[in-house]
Each structure stands twice: as C-alpha cells, then as structure tokens.
Amino acid sequence: MALIEWRKDFETGFPGIDFEHQTLIESVNDLHSRIDQSGGNVSGAIRRLGEIHVLVESHFALEERIMREEGFPLPV
C-alpha cells in the first residue's frame, strides 16, 4: 500500500505542476517501499533520496516561474 495516495483535491489546475506533484508522491512512495524492503541495506534508498532532492529543486523553480507568470506575489 502506498504511503501517500494521490487525490483529485491535490490538483492545482496547472498541468505541469500537477504532473510534478504526482511524480514527487510516486517518488516518496518508492523511497518508502525501498526503506521498508531494504533489510538494512539502504544504498538504494539513499540514491532515491538524492533523486527526490533533484526533483524538488527543479519543481520549486517551475512553481516560482509559473507564479511570476500568473502575477502571484513571491516572498523576498
């Protein structure tokens, strides 16, 4: 069973953001599964965590770009 289940109410209405949110949830679920099944060998989980870090950085860059384009105020 997944740690986090995607729900329709998570959708923002921005397809690119929604896709990335779904991808991040799938990645977190995969990480959870790897840790659960690691039997003490965490190298796969550590690698997956690094991949999630990269996804999060690029995701926030996309969100900030869309917020600027849509006129949302950004924090200083």
Keywords for this structure?
single chain; mainly alpha
Polypeptide structure, described:
It is a single chain. By secondary structure, the protein is mostly helical. The protein has a domain at 44-76. The chain has two helices and no strands. The longest helix is centred in the C-terminal third of the chain and has 28 residues, at 43-70. The chain is elongated. The mean pLDDT is 89.
Architecture blueprint of SSEs:
Blueprint: H1 15-36, H2 43-70
Summarize the structure.
With 76 residues, the protein is mainly alpha-helical. It has helices at 15-36, 43-70.
In terms of quaternary structure, the protein is single chain
Percent range of helical residues: 55-70%
Content-based structural category: mainly alpha
Mean pLDDT: 89
Give the radius of gyration: 15 Å
* Tally of separate helices: 2
Distance between the termini: 40 Å
Order of helices and strands: HH
Uncertain segments of ≥5 residues (pLDDT<50)? Answer: none
Query: Count the strands?
Result: 0
Q: How much of the residues is beta strand, in percent?
A: under 5%
Largest sheet features: none
Q: What is the approximate shape?
A: elongated
